[in-house]
Every structure is written in C-alpha cells, then in structure tokens.
Amino acid sequence: MVLKKIEDRTYEGARGRVAVIVADFHQEMTNGMLQGLEEVFEQYGEVSWQVHRVPGAFEIPLMAQKLASMVQVGEEPALNPDPLSSLAEASEGQKKGETIPAEEGIFDVIVVLGCVVKGDTYHFELVANECARGCMDVMLRFDIPLVFEVLAPYTYEAGMKRSQGEFNHGKLAAFTALDWLKKLK
Fold first, then answer.
1. Which of these is catalytic: 26, 52, 123, 169?
2. What is each CA distance from 23 to 20, 51, 74, in whole angstroms?
3. Is position 123 annotated as part of the catalytic site?
4. Chosen CATH of 28-81+99-184 out of 3.40.50.620, 3.50.30.30, 3.40.50.970, 3.40.50.960
5. Among 168, 115, 176, 179, CA closest to 6
6. Which of 65, 122, 148, 173 lies 20 to 30 angstroms, CA to CA, from 113?
C-alpha cells in the first residue's frame, strides 16, 4: 500500500481553543503525532491548545467527555456538575438525550491521538472500535468537532511510519482542527 504524504496547508484567520488528548500507550508513536500537531499549531498565534494524557486509547472517550462538558463559569473553567444528566434523566429545562452546544464549552475542537496495534488476539478490535464509538458519541452529544486520529495499524512498523515525518498523522489532525476552527468562526 502506498502511503499518502501529508501536504502542508494554510488556514488564514484560524483561531480558537483546542483540547488535545494523547494516549500514552505506544508513546513512541503518539508523541511523534503530538510533535507533528504542535509544529503546525505553533504557526498560528491565535490558536491555543492544551494537552491531556490518558493511559491508552480505550480511555480517550472518557477524557473527551470530561473536556467537552467543561463550561466557562466566571473567570474559571469548571466541569458541568452532571455531564451525564441527559443520558440518565433529563435535568431541569433539558430533554433526555439533548445535545449540549459547544459554544457553551471552553474548547472549540477536541483532537484525539492514539495508536492500537493489531496483535494475536481480538483485543485490538475491541479497543479500536470502542474508542471510535465513544468518540463519535461525545462529538454528537456535545455538538463539538472531534478530530479522530487514533491509528489502528496491522503492524508496529506501519504505526511508526504514520507518526513521523512526511506521513505524520498528527499534522493531519492539526490541519483538520484548523479547518474546523475556520468554519466555526
């Protein structure tokens, strides 16, 4: 299979706040993707980002949910006191299952970076699929763009190729986040 080179792009006027969630499992890959993302973001003075680390890809959706539910209260960001209220029972003035608009949150976009490498068991499918499903749930429930760059390569070598240099999917994640920031403003 031919790898597609990640081409540089420009997003003039992009500004906003980005939460970046990085899985520590396969850190040699996720740190490479984070480096690629930061190299792109450093070129945009109006873009701020905050990195949040989790143990592995399976834990990414929970952190995404926590960050998506953060709201601005006065001068300080705070967690929504009951971020799961729409899943259990509707809170006052809210319908069950209702989305929470992103403009009420402190982040404009969430980026997730991780890597799940296929091994000899079904564990790979479980982790990769549930991470993707959980992230989609967060994006739709909180109405916030979530850029999903959790690699699921069949080999360690394929993961390393996609986390460094001209094939770095961290750069691709940054460009996608910048595209969203431009569209949101």
1. 123
2. 10, 11, 31
3. yes
4. 3.40.50.960
5. 168
6. 122
What's the CA gap between 66 and 166, in Å, rounded?
Answer: 32
**Mean of per-residue pLDDT scores for the chain:** 85
Q: Give the sign of the dihedral formed by CA 118, CA 119, CA 120, CA 126.
A: negative
Task: State the Cα–Cα distance between residues 22 and 33, nearest whole angstrom.
Answer: 9
Structure-token match 């079904």, residue found: 122
d(CA 77, CA 88): 24
Residue 138 or 1, more confident = 138
So where are the chain's domains? 28-81+99-184
- DSSP structure string for 32-55: HHHHHHHHHHTT-TTEEEEEEEES
b vs e for 126-165, b when ≥16 Cβ sit within 10 Å of the residue's Cβ? Answer: ebbeebbebbeebbebbebbbbbbbbbbeeeebbbbbbbe
What is the average pLDDT across 88-95?
A: 40
pLDDT surpassing 60 at residue 22: yes
